[in-house]
């Protein structure tokens, strides 16, 4: 399944979680439930995956934490905020670039209708090999 197909499947699962829980909970509740749905659908998901960074010759092992990483190609950044901002978008772009992931979804569960809180972000600099591929 490519990243585009995967994103469509994950959006459906996120809508399912939102239908059952509605808006107004903590991000951790949505993260736990969405990870359950993803795993239950047969996909591999990692929660709070560490994303190391290199800075001026030093290696920082715990530079960032991805909320969810699906099939080692789709980054999910979850929010529970009044509205998504440019900073949230920039954060996801940074994660995509640092991890060399092709695609990400910014999902704000604090909306009446989840589609109003969804943003799909493409890594325009994606190289079709992953840094951990050997």
UniProtKB/TrEMBL annotation:
<dbReference type="Pfam" id="PF13366">
    <property type="entry name" value="PDDEXK_3"/>
</dbReference>
<protein>
    <submittedName>
        <fullName>GxxExxY protein</fullName>
    </submittedName>
</protein>
<dbReference type="InterPro" id="IPR026350">
    <property type="entry name" value="GxxExxY"/>
</dbReference>
């Amino acid at each position: 399944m490519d990243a585009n197909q995967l994103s469509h499947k994950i959006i459906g699962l996120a809508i399912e979680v939102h239908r059952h829980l509605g808006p107004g909970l903590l991000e951790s509740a949505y993260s736990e439930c969405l990870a359950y749905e993803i795993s239950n659908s047969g996909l591999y998901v990692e929660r709070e995956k560490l994303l190391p960074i290199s800075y001026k010759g030093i290696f920082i092992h715990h530079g960032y934490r991805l909320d969810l990483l699906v099939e080692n190609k789709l980054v999910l950044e979850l929010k529970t905020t009044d509205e998504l901002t440019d900073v949230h978008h920039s954060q996801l772009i940074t994660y995509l670039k640092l991890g060399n992931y092709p695609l990400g979804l910014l999902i704000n569960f604090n909306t009446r209708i989840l589609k109003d809180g969804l943003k799909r972000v493409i890594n325009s600099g994606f190289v079709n090999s992953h840094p951990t591929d050997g």
